[in-house]
Design a protein that fits this description.
The complex is a heterodimer. Helix content of chain A is 8%, strand content 53%. The longest helix of chain A has 18 residues. Chain A is built from eight helices and 37 strands. Chain A is globular, with a radius of gyration of 24 Å. In chain A, the strands form six sheets. Chain A has a 22-stranded antiparallel β-barrel. Chain A is mainly beta. Chain A starts with a helix and ends with a strand. By secondary structure, chain B is of the alpha/beta class. Chain B is 37% helix and 24% strand. Chain B contains six helices and ten strands. In chain B, helix 2 crosses helix 3. Chain B starts with a helix and ends with a strand. Chains A and B meet through helix 1, helix 2, helix 3, strand 31 and strand 32 of A and helix 1, helix 2, helix 3 and strand 8 of B.
């Protein structure tokens, strides 16, 4: 393996480089543009993220962007996979859900409830568990994504509860950008088949974009030594890692008015025996998500605008957890609606003010556990909250801005919280900026963490308090030239009243408690190359340490060193070769062991358009077939769970 | 452990090596640059609304020449975009400009923001020789470049320096003046 590795990588790299000078441009899009009238050209959106958005230098946060080119070049299939390329992010897969860790912090089985995911500004986290979907359960066709904006650090001063570690906003393409129909079909290893489609059109002021995705996956077979007993099928989990999913997304706008909606569903088999379930039969979860939103934006005058939105959201979850042949089910419903009014005002040359009011009513947030003869647990915990926020970006002197923000939330059942933010941003040249950032955020305990109980398994904790985070960061960004951007940031954050699942050994029970304090510090650096007209690449390093503040022990599921690198080479005029490399140091498990360090190599090949309409993409994940593990949660007998082995996917896309 | 660490170091060095190597490869284009391609299309459209002054030039009048001063990447985009296209019925030549004197041989000259120190000289030469100037650079419009592109709300717009167009004796259609920023 060692020699194989040593030989193949450099040979590939050196073979690729000379070919890049032979590359050509796909002329289909050019022809289309040259046929447009001047007014049509003026309506064409420029993918500002293909280069670096100039204003990001003065944003009061540490921000990074994944562009549609990145998604296409590296064939990112899920949001989690796309985020994994970013500085400080890392993944875990418990074979049911995909988890994203950030800056050394990822509590096992936290359902990503410390990260806010938004779709065009609409929060996708559901209200029962606060979970954010990172895998196919998100149900978004990433081909229809214009860019993914990632705000690092707490963002509760704008978005409220849950914006502890990151705020991720997925910005979908407008219909004018798609301008036609695009259909894809793919097939791959372990019985993977998927289809997706997107359609977009603009006519006058009316713009519509519709996209869908769906797929089935048979999944890998596993042998778990820890389950090697006759009652658990001798540890053999065969055909249990299956998945079926679909998602539909639509957005229509006319003038100031916008309507958007999403409908998704994902069914997933659980192959790991989590929660003492069998590893045969129907062991599965279902996640359904739906929302509708109407928004209205009005420019009042040159310096002020108002935005109003109204939304309705729905979440439905079911789980089938048979154990020892005895059936057991659980389900959750979440229904909520809300509205927000936001007012933006620029006063003189010194102040840019954003203020808003939001109200949300959670009609239903429940959890039920039952079998065919009795209900073990049921509780519905509806609540509401009201929020006020005010942000002011004040120009102290030219190029030096101070941003101060505060959000006040009042919850009907969890009390109130204030989330402040301060940022001092100095753009000392056209290409460079330094930011000093301070922010606080909180997360209210969800209904499951507060009230769930199960006899002889889990005890409820209605007195559990919200957890809070305080974060300090200094970030430096420099645009080396038009295409190369470098950044370094150092951060420290401290979490109080951390909500975590704890195992009481004497009682053999689990409970969510305010564990105490945790703190993390780290340094991140990245070099990103985004040429206007070629592939591009990135390399980033993250050195991070997340500790229990009392014991000073490293937190579980927290790698101390991350290295990510990717490069997209245009080859021979018609093909892009895009290798990606991932290194992670080992992670501490719940049993106090440490997983091995991980070294992964992915490879994507993508053709330019051929026969006018078509292109083909091929992706190999874990090409060197590394066997690697990440820590499991308390619900797993396994201390560490095996991750995906080498797998392939080939996809044909037609664009009309 | 040591083997894996060596792998990591080895790979990192390789990647760090490959990045500068790529920067030095002056490759033709491969993927689409939305902005540059859009600009290329804009140029062709704009020419439909502009009438050039009668100026005696030594150049071949059967060819429409677009010069690019200081932006190799955009020059490459134009070469591909205008491969077989014509402007005003003439075949199009894309030409690299390296001195202000060479501007005379152009019908249009696109000036990169690197030329800010000599933009005054470029404007003077262009207006003398009937060369339409275009750019995408802060303050170039106000300094006399005839058409200066800029981004507004994620869309590519352009501003027109009417005074400079008049100095160069260009005539422009009123259709062009609609919905654009006119400076001076």
């Amino acid at each position: 393996m060692k020699y194989y590795f040593k030989i193949t990588i450099p040979v590939m790299a050196f073979l690729i480089m000379p070919f890049s000078i032979l590359c050509q441009i796909d002329t289909t899009e050019i022809n289309k543009l040259f046929e447009m009238s001047l007014s049509d050209l003026m309506n064409q959106e420029v993918v500002t993220s293909a280069r670096f958005v100039q204003r990001s230098a003065e944003t009061a946060s540490s921000v990074s962007v994944i562009t549609s080119d990145d998604i296409r070049n590296f064939h990112y299939a899920t949001l989690g996979e796309a985020l994994n390329s970013q500085c400080g992010f890392y993944l875990s897969n418990d074979k049911n859900y995909l988890y994203v860790g950030s800056r050394g912090f990822s509590r096992p089985t936290d359902y990503n409830n410390r990260i806010i995911i938004m779709l065009d500004g609409h929060i996708m986290n559901e209200v029962v568990y606060g979970s954010a979907f990172m895998g196919n359960e998100l149900g978004i066709n990433l081909k229809n994504v214009e860019k993914i904006e990632i705000v690092k650090g707490p963002g509760a001063s704008l978005y409220g509860s849950g914006a502890m570690l990151n705020v991720v906003n997925i910005i979908m393409k407008k219909g004018a950008r798609t301008d036609g129909l695009q259909v894809s079909a793919g097939t791959g290893s372990y019985g993977k088949h998927e289809v997706s489609a997107l359609f977009g059109k603009q006519s006058g002021k009316f713009d519509i974009s519709v996209s869908g995705t769906g797929g089935v996956y048979k999944g890998e077979n596993y042998y778990f030594q820890e389950l090697d007993k006759p009652e658990t099928n001798n540890g053999i989990s065969s055909g249990m890692d299956w998945e079926k999913y679909y998602g539909l997304q639509a957005k229509a706008s006319s003038g100031n008015l916008t309507f958007s909606g999403v409908l998704t569903s994902r069914l997933k088999g659980i192959p790991t025996g989590a929660f003492n379930t069998d590893i045969t039969g129907d062991v599965s979860t279902t996640d359904n998500r739906f929302f509708l939103e109407a928004g209205y934006r009005k420019e009042l005058n040159k310096n002020s605008s108002v935005f109003f939105r109204l939304y309705y959201d729905d979440y439905y979850y079911t789980g089938s957890y048979p154990s020892g042949g005895n059936e057991c089910f659980e389900a959750s419903y979440g229904h909520w609606a809300g509205s927000e009014i936001q007012y933006n005002l620029k006063t003189g040359n010194r102040n840019i003010i954003v203020t808003g009011v939001e109200y949300r009513k959670i009609f239903r947030s429940d959890y039920k556990e039952w079998n065919n003869s009795e209900t073990f647990f049921y509780k519905n915990s509806p609540f509401s909250f009201f929020s006020l926020y005010l942000h002011d970006q004040f120009t102290i002197v030219k190029k030096l801005n101070l941003t101060a923000g505060l959000r006040y939330d009042h919850y009907s059942i969890f009390g109130q919280a204030a989330s402040p933010r301060l940022a001092l941003v100095y753009e000392y040249s056209d290409a460079s900026s330094v930011k000093l950032l301070y922010s606080e955020a909180f997360r209210i305990p969800n209904m499951y963490e507060s009230f769930y109980q199960s006899e002889n398994v889990h005890v409820s904790n209605p007195g559990i308090k919200p957890e809070k985070i305080r974060s300090f960061e200094i970030a430096w960004g420099h645009k080396i030239n038009e295409n190369i951007y470098g950044s370094i940031s150092a951060y420290y954050f401290r979490i109080h009243n951390l909500i975590d699942l704890t195992y009481h050994e004497e009682e053999d029970l689990t409970e969510f408690i305010n564990l105490g304090k945790a703190h993390a510090s780290g340094i991140e650096t990245e070099l990103r190359y985004r040429p206007a007209n070629r592939g591009g690449g990135y390399i980033n390093f993250s050195l991070q340490e997340a500790l229990d503040a009392e014991s000073h022990h490293l937190l579980t599921n927290s790698p101390e060193l991350l290295v990510r690198a990717g490069w997209s080479y245009p080859v021979a005029g018609k093909v892009f070769i895009s290798p990606e490399f991932f290194y992670e140091s080992g992670r501490k498990t719940l049993a106090g062991n440490k997983t091995d360090e991980v070294f992964l190599f992915n490879l994507t090949l993508r053709t330019a358009r051929f026969l006018k309409y078509f292109d083909i993409s091929f992706k190999a994940r874990n090409l060197l077939n590394q066997k690697y593990y990440y820590p499991g949660g308390y619900e797993h007998v396994q201390d560490a769970l095996i991750q995906d082995s080498r797998n392939f996917l080939i996809q044909l896309t037609a664009k009309f | 452990m040591r083997t894996k660490l060596r792998r990591l170091i080895y790979l990192t060095v390789l990647l760090l090596y490959s990045i500068p190597v790529q920067f030095f490869i002056s490759a033709p284009l491969s993927a689409q640059s939305d902005r540059d391609i859009l600009k290329a299309a804009y140029i062709e459209r704009i020419t439909r609304f502009v009438e050039w002054p009668q100026v005696n030039k030594t150049k071949d009048t059967s060819i429409f020449t677009i010069g690019v001063y200081g932006d190799r990447e955009f020059e490459d985009v134009l070469k591909i975009a205008y491969g077989k296209r014509t402007i005003k019925g003439k075949s199009v030549e894309i030409k690299q400009i390296v001195t202000t004197e060479q501007i005379e041989s152009c019908d249009i000259c696109y000036v990169s923001d690197k030329m800010k120190d000599i933009i005054g000289n470029i404007v003077t030469a262009a207006n003398n020789y009937g060369v339409l100037l275009m750019s995408e650079a802060k303050d170039f419009g106000i300094n006399g470049v005839h058409f200066n592109f800029y981004i507004e709300n994620d869309k590519l717009r352009f501003e027109i320096n009417k005074k400079s167009l008049d100095s160069g004796r260009f005539k422009t259609s009123s259709l062009l003046m609609m919905n654009v920023k006119i400076i001076q």
